Amino acid sequence: EESKNSISTIRYNALISTLPKVERIKMSPNLDWYKYQGFWFPYSFLVGLLSIQEHFKPLPTDIFLCSFPKTGTTWLKALTFAISTRNRFGPNHPLLSTLPHECVPFLEVDLVHDGTNYNRDPQLPLLATHVPYTSLPKSIIELGCKIIYICRDPKDTFVSLWYFLIKLTGRELGEITNHKLCFQKEFEQFCEGKSSYGPFWDHVLEFWKASLENPERILFLKYEDMKKDNNLFYVRRLAEFINQPFSEEEEDKGVPQKIMELCSFGNLSGLEVNKTGKHRADTGLGINNNAYFRKGEIGDWKNHLTKEMAETIDRIAEENLDLDSYEY
Ligand code: A3P
Questions:
Q1: CA distances (Å), 25 to each of 33, 131, 144, 286, in order?
Q2: pTM over cut 0.90
Q3: Adjacent-strand bridge partners of 129
Q4: Interval between CA 107 and ligand 1 midpoint (Å)
Q5: Antiparallel, parallel or unpaired: β 63-67 and 287-288
Q6: How crowded is the C-beta side of 137, counted as CA atoms within 13 Å?
Q7: Which atom of ligand 1 is least distant from the CA of 164?
Q8: Closest ligand 1 atom to the C-alpha of 293?
Q9: Alpha helix (H) ranges present in the chain?
Q10: What is the pLDDT of residues 288-323, one digit of tens each?
Q11: Quick check: ipTM above 0.85?
């Protein structure tokens, strides 16, 4: 198995070395991006993508949580995990002691090669990925697996990405924000479509179009709607979509409400595990759990982007996401 995997990696490296590349931060080659099938990927995620395209075999019952990074993945994972396991755990729900990312496997990281190293929970149909729609393993579409996509205002997404990058590179905020050029440069690249799994616009548009063509199979959600309404509509919608609607008895007991509260930013961000734990500590992808919980608000971009920057993103969004009934 070991040697089969390394032979694949040699093959993938040969392909990757021919791809267009963006070098980003001198000290961190893992943050460089490579363009594959129209999107930009950091190296390790691209190796993962090539591997799942070749080996991964979904079950027809698998449900894929898809997102562009920093658009609400953690929240979506927590909600769907809590909904689908609600009858399995008592008061010691795993979300109280486990980072949501460790509750739902990450396709292009955990299921690489043939996933033999990963112990998938046979009772849990959820898998998460940032892979764009066009690059998803074809069998996911052919088998008609369900997909839940979450998207978010690109201005807030960019600001969230920026702070995540700071955590990722382990640099102090002061040090990096003093280099205004860096922020400016990341911003310009984001606008040009260069970001992890970017272009943002194409990522969103593909899932949006697919969801219009196939609303039964693809549920398209917006972070802002879920946050703003903060009612139970989306908790119920998610439960229905994954074929686990709440019974009358559960409604009477306030189960949807409890799930919403369990998964709220306030609750999750205050848990010890999410304040002090570390995710994938023993790998090159190691990061503090608290990097996934920053502010969890709508419109924080106002504190970080100039008026011109905001106008630039809005204009690009308008040009690229020319969508009826889709607006920010
Ligand atoms: P901010 O950086 O704007 O605070 P992802 O989960 O896709 O990596 O996205 C991270 C963003 O979602 C961060 O946004 C984070 O704070 C926010 N977030 C994390 N958990 C959340 C929750 N339970 N509810 C709402 N937002 C959440």
A1: 11, 23, 40, 18
A2: yes
A3: 66
A4: 20
A5: unpaired
A6: 25
A7: 2
A8: 16
A9: 2-16, 43-55, 73-84, 100-103, 107-110, 138-142, 154-169, 173-177, 180-191, 200-213, 223-229, 233-241, 248-252, 255-262, 265-270, 272-276, 307-320
A10: 999 999 999 999 999 999 999 999 999 999 888 865
A11: yes
